[in-house]
Write a structure and sequence with these properties.
The chain is α+β, with helices and mostly antiparallel strands. The chain has helices at 8-32, 39-44, 53-62, 103-116, 143-147, 176-182, 189-194, 211-224, 230-249, 274-285, 298-304, 373-388; strands at residues 70-78, 81-87, 97-98, 255-256, 270-272, 289-290, 293-294, 319-320, 345-349, 353-358, 363-370. It has a domain at 97-320: DD-peptidase/beta-lactamase superfamily (Beta-lactamase, 3-Layer(aba) Sandwich). Helix 4 (103-116) packs across helix 9 (230-249) and helix 8 (211-224) crosses helix 9 (230-249). This is Serine hydrolase.
């Protein structure tokens, strides 16, 4: 039987109706707004902390999206309690995660305890034997200048490929950071760092330097273990760090790495669980106290959170939410001008590691993962937007 078709006039008369129905559907979709957060992010939120709950969930999803690389952990604390917590595949709450450059914040806390004990002096020349020879201008470098990244020592944080030596590159093409950590300086990192000449007068210029926390770690070893034996240096510093920093903060999972000479690799090799990294942020947010007990002198933490004379965006081991903080060679802002209160601070590590404290918002935020430089900018921007959701933000 032949198929019967509607008359042409009837078919044409249906076109406006169908078109209007399609437009109505599009309008309805547009009115629905952004999609709801994923089930994983909804489950991650224990309390919205005053932020819009759906937007908070979508912000968490954004920090686990493919365009940020791999986020291994995100912890958000408000008033000292975890209000959101999510982990990447294969990562659990107790997993120790790499802090990379956030180790310089831990090193600054350890040095603060040594200053509090009277074993080091902030305003005096750093007691490095090689710098004390008559006529050596490095003898002018003070402990304070080291902590504020203005020693004047030659250092390049970025350079050629990390495996340049195996692809035809020379050691001279490597950054000082890569040479110290992985190449000719790796067995005695402090010796490599301390052998560098001045390229600016002590105190005159800011340079973010992975070598500086290694020098500070060597100073700690020298005052805690006059015996230069690597095992005794390692034990003395490890015990002091555990007893005076990690244990009082409740960072039970934290572990520090050492090189073959027994020097703590204070710029890179500290691991801890995400919750323990968050305890570090809470400690700084409370200016060195825990439940009312002052663990580290308040004035030391205040010093850490004051701008370096040569970079308003850096204190001592900690980045600050000040105008135009420019670490490294890229010149990018590190924190969140216009997005978060001016007293926000952060311990920051390579590949997008962050421990962020916001005293005005009563917040601590931790993000740990693996991101390339482009992805790090995405992580940074999304963390700033997450902070801006909470009361007390800008």
């Amino acid at each position: 039987m032949p198929v019967r078709r509607p008359p042409l006039i009837l078919a044409l008369s249906l076109v406006p109706v169908l078109a209007l129905a399609g437009l109505a559907g599009c309008g309805q979709d547009a009115q629905q707004g952004p999609p709801p957060p994923s089930a994983e992010s909804q489950a991650a939120i224990k309390d919205d902390g005053g932020a819009p709950r759906a937007a908070f969930g979508r912000a968490i999803d954004g920090l686990f999206a493919e365009d940020v690389g791999r986020t291994e952990a995100l912890v958000v604390m408000k008033r000292g309690a975890v209000i959101a917590e999510r982990y990447g595949e294969g990562v659990r709450a107790e997993t120790r995660l790499h802090g990379w450059g956030m180790g310089q914040c831990v090193t600054a806390l350890m040095v603060g305890q040594l200053v509090s004990d009277g074993r080091l002096r902030l305003a005096e020349s750093a007691p490095i034997p090689a710098w004390q020879r008559p006529g050596d201008p490095r003898g002018e470098i003070t402990l304070k200048q080291l902590l504020q990244m203005r020693s004047g020592l030659r250092h390049s944080e970025t350079g050629g490929s990390a495996n340049g030596a195996s692809t035809g590159g020379s050691l001279a093409q490597q950054s000082d950071r890569m040479r110290m950590l992985y190449l000719d300086g790796r067995d005695d990192m402090a010796a490599y760092a301390e052998a560098q000449p001045l390229e600016a007068p002590a105190g005159a210029r800011f340079v973010n330097s992975a070598a500086t926390p290694v020098i500070l770690s060597d100073l700690a070893a020298r005052v805690l273990s006059p015996d230069a034996h690597p095992d005794r240096r390692r034990k003395a510093v490890g015990d002091y760090l555990r007893n005076r920093v990690f244990a009082p903060l409740g960072m039970d999972s934290a572990m520090a790495g050492f090189d073959r000479s027994g020097t703590m690799i204070g710029s890179a090799m500290i691991h801890a669980s995400a919750r323990d990294w968050a305890k570090l942020g809470e400690f700084l947010r409370h200016t060195g106290s825990i439940q009312g007990a002052q663990i580290l002198p308040r004035r030391w933490v205040q010093f850490m959170l004051e701008s370096s004379p040569r970079n308003p965006g850096y204190g001592a081991g900690v980045w600050l939410n000040r105008t135009k903080a420019k670490p490294g060679a890229g010149g990018e802002d590190v924190l969140f001008p216009g997005m978060a209160p001016g007293n926000v601070f952060a311990c920051v590590g390579e590949q997008g590691q962050y421990v962020i404290g916001s005293p005005d918002q009563l917040l601590t935020v931790v993000r740990l993962g693996e991101s390339d430089p482009v992805q790090e900018r995405v992580v940074h921007d999304r963390l700033g937007k997450l902070l801006a959701m909470f009361p007390g933000g800008i």
